[in-house]
Design a protein that fits this description.
Helix 1 packs antiparallel against helix 2 and helix 3 crosses helix 5. The protein contains 16 helices and two strands. The protein is globular. Strand 1 and strand 2 form a beta hairpin. Helices cover 69% and strands 2% of the residues. By secondary structure, the chain is mainly α. The protein has one domain.
């Protein structure tokens, strides 16, 4: 972390405008790193981890309820109106609808974990109702973001989690089939085969897709919409890699992508002057250098691998360890999918928020802590029951040998 902060400081100092670059570095990298470091230093016990993950999922669910209620009462009452005013969906909670979609993608696996663990808690019917309602509303809000990256990330993250947490191969097969069908509404891949088999069937399929996803054309690079949504973003990502090759140590500086792209790296065929690579790792490499991009990639990968390690080593009866680790790994993978297909702006002054980056940072911290946390739940025991997952009243974490008071 110290290396990232040091490189970020040097990269920021070399930019022509500190007023523009400093907030991006502060809110986009330094604050998430401080949060990650704080969680690692506190080393919350298993009870603290469960409460943290539950609170993170619940916070996004509450934001979904608030956003949906506000839209229905004051902004839109029809699906067409929701799409036309989609930027207003999260205006009062996370400001930007892309950030909201990213957060929903990460929160849904956490909410699914609470639903799958409902029988482990007292008052299981209450937990079932609460978790089910939170999931339903959050799924509705994912759809209403009309964000392809959020749709894709949510489907893959939730499907992956459900596949690894069920032991029935028939159910796994059903999940794969349903997921493939849902993805076909985001990326209409069956159209290629259907055109060869029956043009009429292809036309019918495209009509169904357009009824569900009116922005389906934005995935086709040959369409006017897809030219911006796909082609121009690929041009920007390519330019980011060239920036990183020319400035490998400290990048062009936070917030300097747009100027560098416009003046030097923009392709002749590009029609838009984008201000970001719209792909997290190339964006980090371009603005902060290859060292920062490599450390972030390593952190994300390590957290997922640690979560997978806990899942694979946990005995089948230890549902808390298996489902909890699967949820953390799936949530991080969902974040990576959104960050790669849509791009995560670490921070932009007009967006006012870096909530998705902070959320992902907390998930990575939990992923890194999982092996030690699971092993230390009950001294001398490989598994722990439900009581070990709930902290005593008034206590929220564990540090060293004692509980930390709330």
């Amino acid at each position: 972390m110290a290396v990232v902060v040091a490189v970020t400081a040097v990269s920021t100092a070399q930019t022509p405008s500190l007023l523009r670059s400093l907030p991006i570095a502060q809110h986009g990298l330094v604050e998430p790193l401080l949060l990650l470091g704080l969680i690692l230093w506190l080393r919350p016990g298993w009870a603290g981890v469960v409460v943290l993950l539950g609170a993170m999922g619940a916070s996004v669910a509450l934001a979904s309820i608030f956003s949906l209620t506000r839209m229905l009462l004051r902004v839109a009452q029809t699906l067409a109106a929701f799409e036309a005013e989609r930027t207003q969906l999260s205006r009062l909670v996370y400001y930007n609808v892309g950030i909201f979609g990213d957060l929903l993608t990460m929160a849904l696996p956490l909410l699914l974990a609470w639903l799958l663990l409902r029988r482990q808690w007292p008052h299981s019917r209450l937990w079932t109702a609460l978790a089910g309602a939170a999931i339903a509303i959050s799924i509705g809000c994912v759809y209403l973001t009309f964000s392809k990256s959020a749709w894709l990330g949510s489907i893959i993250a939730c499907a992956g989690m459900l596949i690894v947490t069920t032991g029935d191969w028939r159910r796994r097969g059903a999940i794969v089939v349903i997921s493939a069908a849902l993805i076909s509404f985001v990326i209409p891949y069956p159209a290629v085969l259907l055109r060869a088999v029956s043009p009429g069937m292809a036309a019918t399929y495209n009509q169904i897709v357009n009824n569900v996803n009116s922005r389906a054309d934005t995935i086709d690079p040959n369409s006017p919409e897809g030219e911006v949504s796909v082609t121009e973003r690929l041009y920007a990502s390519e330019a980011a890699l060239r920036m990183a090759a020319d400035h490998p140590l400290i990048g062009v500086g936070p917030g300097s992508f747009a100027a560098a792209y416009q003046s030097t790296y923009r392709r002749a065929g590009a029609t838009r002057a984008l201000d970001s690579a719209h792909d997290l790792l190339p964006y980090l490499a371009a603005e902060f250098g290859l060292i920062v991009a490599a450390i972030v990639a390593l952190g994300l990968l390590t957290a997922v691998l640690f979560a997978a390690q806990v899942y694979l080593r946990a005995p089948p009866e230890d549902q808390f360890a298996r489902i909890g680790s699967a949820a953390v790994g799936a949530a991080i993978i969902g974040f990576v999918i959104v960050a790669t297909t849509f791009g995560v702006d670490l921070y932009r002054p007009y967006r006012l928020m870096n909530s998705d980056v902070m959320f992902a940072s907390a998930l990575v911290a939990v992923g890194l802590l999982l092996p030690g946390t699971i092993a230390g739940r009950t001294p001398g025991s490989e598994a722990a029951g439900p009581r070990d997952a709930v902290p005593p009243p008034g206590r929220v974490g564990h540090h060293g040998g004692g509980w930390i008071s709330a």
